[in-house]
Write a structure and sequence with these properties.
The chain is α+β, with helices and mostly antiparallel strands and 279 residues long. The chain has seven helices and ten strands. The protein has a four-stranded antiparallel beta sheet with strand order 1-6-7-5. It has a four-stranded antiparallel beta sheet with strand order 2-3-4-8, covered by helices on one side.
Length: 279
């Protein structure tokens, strides 16, 4: 599933191409993408609107328009947003929707497993953050994500730290790849009870989360499985991962053999030499 760095990469690419452009024809090939909205109503509500900004909230993309609420897009597991300066490549498969832009260019939403969604936020929201409350937590690259804030989120929690990092209602945008990477960099075992981390460990984890996410954004995300950016290109972070997907290989820090286990039902990579298990 695309995580924060992959979605942020796509956001930046679409911002360059969409802002100031008028949405023309909207063709929805799969009604499930926009359900429960009707296909005709969804398309009609976007046609003729000018894109004013492209934002990200956690793993969600938000397209601001000159009238009406933003368009929200969620790629889920296998969704892809592909930009074509002219007509779309006919070889693109699993197309669910196409958005034609005035002056040329098409944005294609393709999704093999059909889990991705597109919808308009409710009309007349007095505060958009109220809409995300309970769904999307603090942004780990935002100013509000401090070591003290992370410590507050961890305090008193008895469950393992990794599932807490994956809980989108707590911290927005971190997925399986970057949770493994951050915990490895911070030398914290993923099964450690979240509330058991001391102050120094919380600081290390805070720095590691921000460092690994920033590095991944700079590398254009990780192209593991089907992820491609809006140009159809692979990211570069998969070549820079330090522990994730490195089962059986020597740890880059201590030389111990990286192992794979399961934490919270998710495949989890760790170094038994660097990440001491909980007592």
């Amino acid at each position: 599933m695309p995580e924060l760095p992959e979605v942020e990469t796509i956001r930046g690419q679409l911002e360059e191409r969409l802002v100031g452009r008028v949405i023309g024809r909207v063709a929805v090939d799969d009604a499930l993408l926009v359900a429960p909205a009707a296909v005709t109503a969804f398309a009609r509500g976007l046609r003729g609107r000018t894109v004013t900004a492209v934002r990200r909230r956690g793993k969600y993309l938000l397209v601001d328009l000159d009238a009406g609420p933003p368009l929200a897009l969620h790629l889920r597991m296998t969704g892809r947003l592909l930009w074509f300066p002219g007509r779309p490549d006919p070889d693109v498969t699993h197309v669910r929707a196409r958005f034609d832009l005035g002056g040329g260019g098409t944005l294609v939403f393709a999704d093999m497993r059909r889990f991705g969604r597109a919808w308009r936020l409710p009309e007349g929201l007095p505060d958009e953050e109220a809409y995300w409350a309970g769904r999307v937590g603090v942004e780990p690259l935002g100013d509000g994500f401090t070591a003290a804030a992370l410590g507050g989120l961890l305090a008193g929690r008895r469950g393992p730290v990794k599932p807490l990092l994956l809980n989108q209602a707590v911290v927005a945008g971190i997925g399986n790849i970057y949770a493994d990477e951050a915990l490895f960099q911070a030398r914290v075992h993923p099964l450690r009870p979240a509330g058991s981390l001391d102050r120094d460990e919380v600081r290390r984890l805070h720095r590691a989360i921000r460092d690994r996410l920033r590095a991944a954004v700079a590398a254009g995300g990780s192209s593991i499985d089907r992820y491609r950016d809006a140009n159809g290109d692979r990211g570069g972070m998969q070549d820079l991962l330090r522990v994730h997907r490195r089962e059986g290989r020597p740890c880059v820090r201590c030389g111990a053999t990286v192992v794979k286990t399961r934490v919270g039902g998710r495949g989890t990579y760790l170094c038994p030499g660097c990440q001491a298990p909980p007592a």
